[in-house]
Amino acid sequence: MKVPVAVDGRQLVLTNLDKVLYPEAGFTKAEVIDYYSRIAPVMLPHLRGRPLTVKRYPNGVGGQFFFEKNAPRHTPSWVRRVTLPVPGSTKDRESIDFAIIDDLPTLVYYANLAALEIHVPMWRVSAEGTALPPDILVFDLDPGPPATIVECCRVAALLRDALAADGHDSHPKTSGNKGMQLHVPWPDGERGTTAYAKELAQRLDAEHALVTSVMTKRLRPGKVFIDWSQNNPAKTTVAAYSLRANPRPTVSTPLSWDEVEECESPDQLVFTGPDVLARVAEVGDLFP
User: Fold this and answer.
1) Considering the entire predicted model, what is its pTM?
2) Domains of the chain: residue spans and CATH
3) Dist. CA 140–CA 226, nearest whole Å
4) pLDDT tens digits, one per residue of 210-262
């Protein structure tokens, strides 16, 4: 079934709206599109100008998925695209034609493609399509079982204090999976994000038994891995307010520092799409 709709002056055709994409929750494609349409006012500012990588699940979270960076040929002409070099591409490409979600029609277009997860880099492009320096530094906090997001919250607080001592604000969000991320606004002219992030992660590793800055799996049980390498310009991180491909439609959700400090159980920081819509209606956007 195809349903033609107008979204902010753009004509789209929505398809398979009754297809269940999250079987455990009975969450349909129509509900995915509805979520992204309603979260757009707070989500779009975090996407604008950032080259897009999506994870598409045409048959739902239990089926096969694929990453998509290159905008497909059928992408509407009104979707903003930029062609950027990708040295070292695993697909031997010299450049990629990236899409950018700058507006609601583009967000709805990708939701209709079952692009459940939206990932972006820590840098934007200029109006002319040139890559700009990073404007965000990110730490990805990954708990090694039996550690959980509760331990991630403890490490996030350590990072917050260390960053504050260096003159930086930081803003936490859940990953929508088992961990969380810390975003740090990064002013022009500051030193490179990767070098600083690595140095700070190693410093906390040396000072706290709960922390590891090393990716080696055997060193991570019971610890929180501070992944500083996400600041590599070639990498992306799940966007704030993106759905995740879990049995339930969980969301990468911005948090307050009070919520981080008060977390005593992993269940406290699990939010689904409907939860996040209600949450934003109450507290607004907690992300910078």
Assistant:
1) 0.95
2) 2-121 (3.90.920.10), 133-235+250-287 (3.30.70.3300)
3) 6
4) 999 998 888 789 999 999 999 999 999 999 999 999 999 999 999 999 999 99
